[in-house]
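Fold it.
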Amino acid sequence: MPAAGILSILAGADLSGDLDRVAAAAGLRIAHQSRTLGLDRRAWDAATVIVVDADGARRAAARGMPRRPGIVVACAAVPGEPDYRAAVSVGAQQVLRIPAEDTTLLRVIADAVRAAPRSAATGAVLAVVSGHGGAGGSLFATALAHGAGTALLVDLDRHGPGIDLMLGRENQSGLRWPDIVVQEGGLDWDAVRAALPGDDGVSVLSHRRGSEKEIPPGAVSAVLEAGSRGGATVICDVPRWPGPAGRAALAAADLVVVLGQATVGGAAGSAATARAMRAGNPNVGLVVRGPAPGGLRAEDVAAAAGVPLLAGMRPEPKAAQRLERGALRPRPGGPLGRAAAAVLTAVTRASSP
């Protein structure tokens, strides 16, 4: 399989024929892989773009094929819930109706051809969004960073209190967003990590309090790329109404995690937020936390939102008191720690078939 090629894992002859025409228009070779012969890991790794149908995506996920850029789930009809679930399972960046969205597929292919290949040690990128007020998105983003080992925690809500508060690092010296300058050629992860506040394997890039300067989306992309290429798990705390910086993080994310509460209002807010996030990235999942005063189950909230349930959790004991004392490090066996572990497991990049 040539490096600049398309790997097709499609069952239908019509979809395969449509993809052949798109590949010809893009000037790329295409390899059709038969699922009856099993999935070829070498072809999967070498392809510039992988186009699968929903069944192929589920098979690839079950086989342990690694998440990577350039995966598209193709549908002959309007995408439905099974297609989006399949996309989440394999880490697809797009769910497209073919041939109706051939132009979008051509753009995806062109972008993938221009992009540099990512190393096998690439870290996952997650975007965390509160589904409604008080859902606890920033707290969960911090829990993910603590559970990930080597992590980069990125604050993209410049109107918030600063996620460095969650780590108790608000007074620690180091770079904040206004200090990040991206030169031609991008950023070096080792240099970035050495300049940022943090400890215990977690580096944090927060905004500088009192600064009204917008965060440039190009700088966001460069920071996320540096951390990911350096092998860190990158966790972005994104506001519900993202500006250009937040949208850049959402577009780059392997998984968008929406936080919601098990209440009627929480379910409604989470559903609206999930729909908005899925318009820019099909990889959206939900984490639901209690209590559930009306007996609403986490599964019910996820069903209302129309996205997969990543984890359900009870409230973290004494979370507010622990934050007031300076920092909150989730206990591995506590509700936050277990939910974070479930999400990290869902997005882990497999290194072998």
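Residues 5-114 form a domain with the Rossmann fold fold (CATH 3.40.50.2300).
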